[in-house]
Amino acid sequence: MSSLQPATLLSRLPNFDPRAVPVARVDRHLPAVPQQSLEAEALAVRFKTPPVWVPEVVAEPRYSHRSAVLASVLVPIVLRERPMVLLTQRTSHLSTHSGQIAFPGGKHDASDIDLVATALREAREEVGLSHRFVQVLGSLPVYATGSAFMITPVVALVHTGFSISRNTDEVAAVFEVPLEYLMDPANHRWHQMHAEGVSREWISMPYQDDLQDRFIWGATAGMLRNLYRFLSA
User: Fold this and answer.
1) Which CATH class is domain 7-232?
2) Burial of 109 (C-beta count, 10 Å sphere; 0-12/13-18/19+)
3) What are phi and psi of 7, to 5 degrees?
4) Is 78 helix (H, G, I), strand (E, B) or coil?
5) What is the pLDDT averaged over residues 187-216?
């Protein structure tokens, strides 16, 4: 079981840039999830009858002393010619995880029926994704961040025809990455560094699209790694 160092804590280090930290290893020895297992029907069956499996990444080292906060994110798999994962880049002025790549999501509100409702509401508020286009498949195990968020990743299929209307206060960009790319460990890079007497390790999944390099790391990469383990079990 791995433990990824929280992005927020690392970001407090002077001049910290996760892209500049050396890559310790790449998991080229692990098999990619077969293409047929990434199709809509296969994904639905996998969540309906899940295998016995163990998540690889479940908690970051805690640095916050506050009580745990329930939260959820939507892991939206868009059903295009090839399945795509919709992601956001957070605006640079936010107090936590500013500028980082994330799934739509946030804190659970008392008005939310459950954590699935939280993920759907946050996706609507952040990127304008209407629940009419969303088919929830199920959830992955809770991911605990160092900032005391207990995040439930809600995996869903997103049917085409939706429109994006981003909340410009929170979301700088919305983009998509092929699911097959994210489910191939040859694209999973493990980084290691030593700072303040502590050894830190985390995973990244850099992706180059038509516009720029999308550096996926931290909690987002950790939850995607768990999705890989779930689909490849």
Assistant:
1) alpha beta
2) exposed
3) -60, -40
4) strand
5) 84
